[in-house]
Amino acid sequence: MRYTAAHNIGAKFNADGTVRFFPGNTIISMIDHNAPIYEEFKGIRAQLKSLKAADCMTFLPDDSLHMTVFEGVCHQWREPSAWTNLLPIDCKLSETDDLFEERFAAVRPLGKVRMRAVELGGFGGQSLRLMPVSEADAAELKRYRDEMSEAFGIRFPNHDTYGFHISICYFVKEPTDADIEEIQAVHQKVKAYLAEKEVIFTPQPPVLTFFDNMFRFNPFRIPRNGL
Fold this sequence. Notes:
Strand content: 15-25%
Distance between the termini: 38 Å
Largest sheet: 5 strands, antiparallel
Shape: globular
Strand order of the largest sheet: 2-6-5-4-7
Structural class: alpha+beta
Radius of gyration: 18 Å
Number of helices: 4
Number of strands: 9
């Protein structure tokens, strides 16, 4: 497996690992810090942080941890496949905030679903990959995402194959072969642990959030300063 920092540097992060201005909106389920999944997540993250390869990574702060349920738009990614078809591609980001806030309230909320943590993965970073526990859970997530896609006028190319996850970190330096070997060893250990422990949790209700960068997702409108 080859990882890369190329997609992150100059976009979401600087080369020194500091966060960059990267505004947008998205629908997420925040991770409950009082739930067992948070303790499991911290243990898995600690294994990555203990590696020499951690020098290649920027880890996300605790208060930003979430499972993305449906992606919104990002100001810097103005392409037809990543933008709402209900507004011009050169419209202000604040206009998408207005539209999505109205449309989000009109969609039937996501019902209770259960997710299972299955493994570590990622290309531009590392994340804890999640799968619906049952076919009924998968069907409810599909129903919600399909209705959100219709309401927001967005259908990403990976809409039907989207992989649920909790992001842990992003690569900000290109990992060496030795780094990759270290990371892969943690992958094997975590996958075996999750297969034995069976870590299952119920995500919190999704919320529409607004952000200026990858370190904070606000469940309320934020100033766009002319954007």
